[in-house]
Amino acid sequence: MYLIVGLGNPTAKYEKTRHNAGFDVIDAIADKYGIELNLRKGKAFCGTGYIEGQKVMLAKPQTYMNLSGDSVSALVNFYKLDPMEDLIVVFDDISLAPGNLRIRKKGSAGGHNGIKDIIAKTGTDQFARVKVGVGEKPAGWDLADHVLGRFSLEDREKFDDAVKEAVDAVTLMVQDRTDEAMNRYNRKK
């Protein structure tokens, strides 16, 4: 089983913010594949189903971004998953312009506190990730204000296109076609 985790912050206050890019992708996957997020496990809203014949669990941690590792490690441990083989994490990336994706098989936290916590709590950086571009913070802005803010209309359109591509990328990844997903989506727009 693949555990596909989208990072974000719970409550309506944070809906459609840049930091909730992972939640938006999970919602789009759930819609496309008819997976209901109707379970509460590992401090997350979860749902199980199938993507192209592969069993998956979708998860939206309810721990707030900086404590995402609490939820991810609880799910990994409960289901006895191997993060290198079974975990895909989807999250926002300020180093990518809206509309861009970056898929990686492993790597550092790159300054992202949610990923930093997942690495700390799972004890590994060896897990697949889909980074969804939300754009750099404007000069003079506080980073928290930027990532907790909402997109302009133009950037929202680009971001919505990236969400669709992220769904397609995850679909390839659960079919053991991560290299193909990287070749297709790791390009600057």
From TrEMBL:
Subcellular location(s) per record: Cytoplasm
Main localization category: cytoplasm
Keyword Methyltransferase: no
Keywords noted in UniProt: Cytoplasm, Hydrolase, RNA-binding, tRNA-binding
Record-linked PROSITE patterns: PEPT_TRNA_HYDROL_1, PEPT_TRNA_HYDROL_2
EC number: 3.1.1.29
GO CC, alphabetical: cytoplasm
Pfam families: Pept_tRNA_hydro
Binding site for tRNA: Y14, Y64, N66, N113
Site (Stabilizes the basic form of H active site to accept a proton): D92
Domain of life: Bacteria
Site feature: Discriminates between blocked and unblocked aminoacyl-tRNA: N9
Positions of the catalytic residues: H19
GO biological process: protein quality control for misfolded or incompletely synthesized proteins; rescue of stalled ribosome
Enzyme class: hydrolase
UniProt-recorded Gene Ontology molecular function terms: peptidyl-tRNA hydrolase activity; tRNA binding
Catalytic reactions of this protein: an N-acyl-L-alpha-aminoacyl-tRNA + H2O = an N-acyl-L-amino acid + a tRNA + H(+)
NCBIfam families named among the record's database cross-references: pth
Family affiliation: Belongs to the PTH family.
Quaternary data: Monomer.
PANTHER family: PEPTIDYL-TRNA HYDROLASE
Role: Catalyzes the release of premature peptidyl moieties from peptidyl-tRNA molecules trapped in stalled 50S ribosomal subunits, and thus maintains levels of free tRNAs and 50S ribosomes.
The protein, known as: Peptidyl-tRNA hydrolase
Organism expressing this protein natively: Eubacterium ramulus ATCC 29099
